[in-house]
Write a structure and sequence with these properties.
- By secondary structure, the chain is α+β, with helices and mostly antiparallel strands.
- The protein folds into 2 domains: about 80 residues, no CATH class; about 130 residues, GAF domain (Beta-Lactamase), CATH 3.30.450.40.
- It is about 45% helix and about 15% strand.
- The chain is built from 7 helices and 7 strands.
- The strands form 2 sheets. A 5-stranded antiparallel β-sheet has the order 2-1-7-6-5, sandwiched between helices. A two-stranded antiparallel ribbon has the order 3-4.
Length: about 250
Amino acid sequence: MSESMDGKSVTAMRTPESEIARRLERWIARAATELGWKATDRARRQERMLASLAGSGPRAEKLAVELERLAGKLKPANAREARRLAGLVRIRGRAGTPAEPSEIVRALVEALAPALAFESATGFVYEREGGQLTPVFAAGSHVDLIPDIHFDSGAGFSSWVAKTRRPVLLSAFREDPIGVPVERPASFLSVPILVEDDLVAVLNFAHRRPGTFTVSDRDLVLLAGRIAGPGFVRAPWSPELTTRTA
């Protein structure tokens, strides 16, 4: 699918809910063949899953668990999509629950973890009054690049992403001698979380293995951010938020 120059794909024109439903229907069509579902069984399951998708709380969690269970029976491509859908369903199911910005960031990272192969992640919340990014959650070590370079919202690549409102995907930006263990990341993904054109947060992900993140991973995080974004607007800003390690 082609993209515009600002990095927004055609899927951004759909509502998050309709995009998840579209992906779920396409996945069911592929999974049904692999799992040997008959036409009537496929239709029944699709109707039930789409109905659960429209729900929240326990209904959404039940659907996410079912998708994860089915992922264990599928070949890698369909299994990966099932886990991605499970993460999106969880985020969708929690979208209406009031929460602090740090908890929204935590929920986003945790919901994406089974589908996104990262070793470390850091979530930042954008403080409008000061125009600065504040790290509020870290899974593993703190993740950012070019920390000595400053932009309007602070230092590092996350601040550049905040300034441009565009995601950054670096698939393999490090070369090391063969056989030498390296702790620095080789794959990096930084995604702005937007509500319309307003920045509310930035999520960074990293892995030491080159080629870990793909365009579909970037689009997954963008879609997850569109689902969760409005929650940041409704949530009260707490100046006491600090970075926490999972």
